[in-house]
Amino acid sequence: MYPYTDFDTAFLAERNAQFRAQVARRLLGELTEEEFKPLRLMNGLYLQLHAYMLRVAIPYGTLSSAQMRKLAELATRWDKGYGHFTTRQNIQYNWPRLADVPDMLDALGEVGLHAIQTSGNTIRNVTADHFAGAAADEVADPRPVAELIRQWSTDHPEFQFMPRKFKIAITGSETDRAVTRAHDIGLQIVREDGALGYRVIVGGGLGRTPMIGKVLTEFLPEEDLLPYLEAIVSVWNQIGRRDNKYKSRIKITVHELGIDHIREAVEERFAQLRPLFSGVDQELLESIRAHFAPPAFVQRSTAPFDAAYAADPAFRAWADTNLVQHRAEGYAIVTVSLKAHGATPGDATSEQITALADLAETFGHDELRISHEQNVILPHVHRADLPALHAALKEHGLATANIGLASDIIACPGMDYCALATARSIPVAQQIATRIEELRIEQDVGPLKIKISGCINACGHHHVGHIGILGLDRAGVENYQITLGGDHTGAGAIGQRMGPGFAYDEIVPAIERLLHAYLALREDRSETFLETVKRLGLAPFKSALYEEGKAHAAE
Amino acid sequence: MKHKVITANALVEGDVIYLSPEGAWVRDLVEAEIFTDEAVAEDMLLTAAARTGEAVGVYLAEVTPEGAPAHFREAFRASGPSNRFHGKQTQREA
Prior knowledge:
The complex is a heterodimer of chains A (555) and B (94).
Chain A: H1 6-27, H2 33-42, E1 45-47, E2 52-57, E3 62-64, H3 65-78, E4 82-85, E5 90-93, H4 101-109, E6 127-128, H5 143-153, E7 168-171, E8 185-192, E9 195-202, E10 214-221, H6 225-239, H7 250-257, H8 259-273, H9 280-290, H10 303-311, H11 313-322, E11 323-325, E12 331-336, E13 347-349, H12 350-363, E14 367-370, E15 376-382, H13 386-395, E16 410-411, H14 426-439, H15 442-445, E17 450-453, E18 467-474, E19 477-484, E20 496-497, E21 502-503, H16 507-521, H17 529-536, H18 539-554
Parallel strand pairs in A: 6-7, 7-8, 16-17, 17-18
Antiparallel strand pairs in A: 1-2, 2-5, 3-14, 4-5, 4-13, 8-9, 9-10, 11-12, 12-15, 14-15, 18-19, 19-20, 19-21
Chain B: E1 3-10, E2 16-19, E3 25-26, H1 38-49, E4 55-63, H2 72-79, H3 88-93
Antiparallel strand pairs in B: 1-2, 1-4, 2-3
């Protein structure tokens, strides 16, 4: 884990002091809201439907136990005893008072966390593969370079007032768990002739105009990364459209001008910038890397795991769904589900957050991850410790065995909290999960990603859900559009729209019809929902949605 | 014109507030003044929006003649989130 240097600590303290003074001036009436709003946004503070909302960055999704405990403390002291983990590896507090926010930021600063650039037209929190440093299929751990990018982008003077926000995601694996093709810049660490470098993808994004990112370069030498990133953002900062916020993201710039034009402009700018980077950044990267050395893995018998697996069906079900192969022998990557059937996706109480911090300390080398799928990961747990860990998770309502299944739903806050939302998404997720549990079809249905957004901005990633649900306001009533066949892995795919949307009380039965249609249509259990959609196309699913729907309505 | 209330979020707490007939910011929609004259409503909106030390994002929201929210967004603002018993709905019970 990266520990803050004296420079980092002093920078953050000064920044927090500045914001404290800005809040004080706002409360005294010396700043208007117009003046204050961009300042609070740069520090992660939104004004939502019912209250302020503080969005705290969890850089590349990595937390220590001490940091996790601090997140719980914030929820207890200044919020309503819970936090909401988001699809961008942030945590959001839904109820802070303006006057308390400077104290919250100071508390975060004690453990090297902040809310800088979690909003505004800046480079946002850099996200990464949540299995980084643990995945068996990894070329290299992406977190050291993610930390380098965090330091480079934080308070970067050229990139504080850009045409729009800018998001960077990085993975070190061929299997894309970081949705790199749906980011302004997606980076994949690759190895070519023994040397490490980056495949650079640009112009991806979801939202109003979903785009799959395009490859800008197949192999960028490691030492060229920062000047190359600076060149991309600099080119877009100049030519990106500021006249229309719906056309300002780099995905539109790339789409309108073409990837070849962008590549040419980037290369030209890169040639100017490259000599300015003396290599200090690479020295810094080396020193950062030392902090991400793997923990001291031990060789132990996995007999306790084998015994529990044989004897306890609940443990077996959990182990089958929530564990992933670790790079080290005898270890597992544990995903703790924040998707108990009927609960709010991504919410965790202070008590749960504290429990997870304690468990990470006891069993997980003091490390936690937050995934874009709104779950918590203990990346390094020895298999021998899994029965004890599972028992402890159960006590805290954290042992739900549903990772990657139909009830492991991504949902944005939607109109229950968000000022931009056009419909609710949380209760739809809660009801779908509850219904799936009632029907007892989850294991039978198998791998399925349902993703729900409460507006066209697509924080819930609905475009890349196997089943995507988009909540809209149609003539003053909530209405839900369904897309099918989206995929955030591999080359990426945007889901296709099925047809007319469904009312709030019709959407759960509609999803149920899709699941039953899949069970009837698949060749056998080994064919996943997504594979069946790819093999048969949308037609049989449309028929299940609309014709069967009509038949049900007529009954 | 349609029935309207003046609403905003409180500067310090951030919660939803409404303008009362006495010109005070109140927490409950039932205490809000309902405007039926467009010119009066627009005039009051300007005055209310100038109170920048108290309220943020002041606007006119439509209500039914009985004073209930006309749009579901306003209904959520008036009551709170539907997934947790937090916000205005708790204050009303108390």
